[in-house]
Amino acid sequence: MKPNGFIIALISAIILAYFFPTALEHLRVQQIIDVGVGFIFFFYGLKLAPAELKLGFLNYKSHILIHLTTFVLFPLLTMIFIPFFEGGTESKLWLAIFFLGALPSTVTSAVVMVAIARGNLPTAIFNASVSGLIGIVVTPLWMSIFMMKSGEFDFMEIVIDLVIQIVIPLFLGVILQRFLGKWANKYSKQLSLFDKAVIILIVFTSFSHSFNSNLFDNIKWTDLLKLFGIVIFLFLSVYTLTGYLCKLFGFNLQDTITVKFCGTKKSLVHGSIMVKIIFGTNPNVGLFLLPIMLYHIFQLVLVSFFAQNYQKKILEEVATENS
User: What local confidence, expressed as pLDDT, does residue 1 receive?
Assistant: First the structure.
């Protein structure tokens, strides 16, 4: 597999934040990030294809299973690990893992991987698009269960902020698609680089706050290893369980690929944005980003491998049918 430039850039951003945590203090970084986030979802709205969404809408069995996996199964699985952390549900490390479990599915990589594996692409596009909108309400709702009592969590304020930064730019992009849609598709690669640049900036500033406050000085290496082990367990468990459920409900191979890939994905984009809105400049921001970054790297590597294997399998089936 080729080295992934985005992953290298994310790791580099954390290293730079460690050595130069005050590098961007003189800039209005938060305002730059807020504007950048708005443009990410505006551009996504410009590229959203209504015809493909309509095509994937009717596959209701896949939709139900994907969203139940993303927003119910995943968060519930994280609760298995409450006893592993001192302080239980009040542990920042466990809350960071729970935050990962409550996030929506990623958009671009889920669709790309389903396309490579020759899965049900319209269903993947529909679910990946809708998942982010569902997450605007469901993710803060899950987090409020354990954070409301701390007094640091205002559910309605968070949802309103997410609507302003995500939903409004997204729908503005959809409305203007007829005028700017061709332009957005033509420069899709360049716009993708813009998205990644904003995420890298969020990662840099988040870890800068954490390093400035010496947050990671109080975290043991054993805790970080535990975190990594849990992330791997969550991915493999959800991937295996979704495969079993697809077999149980009689899904065909294309739908099985889509459910397994979309159901196991977690969005670094939404995670980065929600972290900034929920926690602001709180020193714990970097800690809450850590599990989703680890998960993002792990899911990209493994799902790329699985996608290529599924592609071979489907091509072999097609060749057998045609012979």
Answer: 44
Domains plus CATH for the chain? 5-316 (1.20.1530.20)
- Counting as low any pLDDT under 70, the low residues of the chain are 1-3, 149-152, 281, 322-323
- pLDDT tens digits, 55-65: 788 899 999 99
Instruction: Give the CA distances from residue 170 to residues 56, 132, 134, 157, 280, in Å, rounded to whole numbers and listed in that order.
Output: 19, 11, 14, 19, 22
DSSP per-residue codes, 120-174: -HHHHHHHHHHHHHHHHHHHHHHHHHHHGGGT---HHHHHHHHIIIIIHHHHHHH
CA distance 141 to 24: 33
Neighbours of 4 (CB within 10 A): 13
Q: Distance between alpha carbon 323 and the CA centroid of its chain, in Å?
A: 41
| Alpha helix positions (H), the chain | 5-19, 29-47, 50-57, 60-68, 74-78, 92-102, 108-117, 121-147, 155-162, 168-175, 177-186, 188-212, 221-248, 253-264, 268-279, 285-322
Angle (CA) 104-105-110 rounded to 5° is 170
Q: What is the pLDDT of residue 58?
A: 84
Half-sphere exposure of 80 (CA within 13 A, CB side): 11
Alpha-carbon distance 45 to 254, whole Å?
Answer: 26
What is the model's pLDDT at position 323? Answer: 63
Name residue 316's amino acid: E
**How buried is 51 (Cβ within 10 angstroms: 0-12 exposed, 13-18 middle, 19+ buried)?**
exposed
Dihedral sign for Cα atoms in the order 17, 22, 23, 27: positive
- Name the residue type at position 96: A
Cα–Cα distance, 223 to 162 (Å, whole number): 31
Closest CA to 33 of 272, 192, 166, 201: 201
Question: Contact, 143 vs 279, CB < 8 A?
Answer: no
